[in-house]
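Sharing a chain and its predicted structure for anyone who wants a worked example. Both blocks are below, sequence first, C-alpha cells second.
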Amino acid sequence: MNKERRLKLCEIVEKLNLIKGELEDIAGEERDAFDNLPESLQYGERGEAMEAAADELEDVSGEVSELASRLEELINS
C-alpha cells in the first residue's frame, strides 16, 4: 500500500476513534439517565428501553473500536 492510501486510512482511523468517543459519551448519558430513574420505573417499558439502548450503544462503540484496530493493523503491515 502506498503512502497516500495509508494516510487516508489513518484519517479514517482518527474519525472512527472520535465516533467511538461520541458513542461512549451518549451511552454513558443514557446509562446515567437510566440509573437516575426511580427503581419502579427502571423495570418498566421505558426503563428497559433505556437500558437496552445504552447496552447497544456500548456494543456498537466496541465494534467501531475493533474496526479502527483492524485498520491500524492493515496500515502497519
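Comments welcome. The mean pLDDT is 96.
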